[in-house]
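Figure S7 source data.
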Amino acid sequence: MEYQFPKAKEPIPSAGKDDLIAIAGAGGFIAGNLVAYFKGKGFTRIRAIDKKPVSEWYQTVGGVENLCLDLSIEESCRRAVEGATEVYNLAADMGGMGFIETHRVDCLRSILINTHMVEAAWRAGAKRYFYSSSACAYNTDLQKDPRVRALKESDAYPAMAERGYGWEKLVSEMFCQEYWAERGLATFIARFHNVYGPFGTWVGGREKAPAAICRKVQEAIDSKSGAIDIWGDGTQTRSFMYIDDCVQGIDKITHCDALVATPINLGSSELIEINHLVSLAEEIGGVKLKRSYDPSAPKGVAGRNSDNTFIKQVLKWEPSTPFKAGLKKTYDWIATQRAARAAGRRVVD
Ligand code: NAD
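C-alpha cells for the predicted nicotinamide-adenine-dinucleotide complex:
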C-alpha cells in the first residue's frame, strides 16, 4: 500500500488565463505539445524552458516566452519559475529503451532537475506543481510476462524500478510528495505510459517503438528492401498513449485537488504486441515486409499495461484514442518529416 498523504483542506488556487504558467522541457515532445495546448485554451502568459537552443526545439508557439536554460542548475530553475502560478516539469534526459538501457547515468542525473525545480517553485510561491513520472517507476518483477496484469498505482512498492531512469522517477515522486506534506506546495504526479504522436522523436536513437516502426516501414518502402528489423522477438507488449490524451490528462490531473501528492497512471489500457504494431504500420503503408528479429537489442520489460481503475474513478475519464487512429496520424507526420529532411529542411530529431 502506498503511503497516503494528507488531502487539501482548502481549495487550491489555479492559474487564471492571465497568470504565468512555466513549462519545463518545452523544446521536447510532450511539453512542446503542452505549451500549444495551454495556448489554445487561451492562456496569455506562458513561459517555455529547455536546455536546447530555441532553434532546435521540436515546436515553438507564437506569443510564448521561450527561455534556453539548463535546469539541472539551481539558479536557472529560480529564473524559470519566477512569478509562475503553475509549474510543469517535463524536462528530463530520456529516450526509448535504446537510450535508457545505455545511459543510466544521464537518466539518474535528471534528479538534479526536479530537485531544483520543486524547491524553486516552492520558494517562488507557485500554487500547483506538476511532475512527469513514468511507468518505469513500477516494480520490474511484475513485468516479466508479455500477458501482463495491468499495473495499478500501488505496484510501485515494494520498489524494484527500472535501473537508472525508473529510480530517478521514483525518488523525484517522493520529493514532490514531501514538498506537499512538509512545505504545503501542491504537487501532482502522473506516471506516463509510452506516449507517441506528432512532434515526437522519430530518428536518432532516442525514439520509441511506434515512431521507430513507422520510420522503418517507410524506409523499407523507399529502399524497396522488403525487410524490417525488430528489436527483441516481437512478443513484448506495451500500451501507447496518443499525445492529445496525454496533454489533456496532465491538465485534468494538475487541477484535481483530490490528487494532490498522489501518483496516478496516465496511459492507455489498450495492450499492443510489438508484432501487431508492425502489422498496423505495414497496413497503413500498404506493404508486407519480411521480419528479422534481434534478440540482443534493448527491449525493456516483457510486458506493461496501465490499470486505469483509479483515473476513471477520480476523473471519470481515461485516454481513449484508439491506437490504430493515433498511429496513422503519427505515420503521416513522420512521412512529412522525412520529406522535409530529404528536401534539406530542418526537422524534429
Ligand atoms: P523529450 O526528450 O522529447 O523532452 C524532454 C526535454 O527536456 C528535451 O527537450 C530536453 O532538451 C529537455 N531537457 C533535458 N535536460 C534538461 C535540462 N537540464 N534543462 C532543461 N531542459 C532539459 O521527452 P518527452 O517524451 O517529451 O518526455 C517528457 C517527460 O515525460 C520526461 O520527464 C519523461 O521522462 C516523461 N515520460 C515520457 C514518456 C514518453 O513516452 N515520451 C513516458 C514516460 C515518461
